């Protein structure tokens, strides 16, 4: 989700992407319903937390090249 946000997607578009993914999991029955519901709850709480989408001001520099 953070990668999509960094690419310029809006939160509504990221939520729609997540909803589509969850819906796909439900249709294919790839996971048990309990796990799908848990994944959905975790993803929504991650999406609601603005600290996950803050720009990092600390840039890592490479000190040695080899």
Essential attributes:
extended, 3 helices, mainly alpha, 66 residues
The beta-strand count equals 0
What structural class do you assign from the helix and strand content? mainly alpha
| Helix proportion | 55-70%
| Overall radius of gyration | 16 Å
Number of domains: 1
Query: Major sheet: size, sense and barrel closure?
Result: none
Oligomer: single chain
Beta strand %: under 5%
Distance between the termini: 33 Å
SS field, number of helical segments: 3
Overall shape: extended
**What is the N-to-C order of secondary-structure elements (H for helix, E for strand)?**
HHH
- Low-pLDDT stretches are none
How does this model look, in words?
It is a single chain. The chain has helices at 2-6, 11-28, 33-48. The chain is 59% helix and 0% strand. The chain has one domain. The longest helix has 18 residues, at 11-28. The chain contains three helices and no strands. Helix 2 (11-28) runs antiparallel to helix 3. With 66 residues, it is mostly helical.
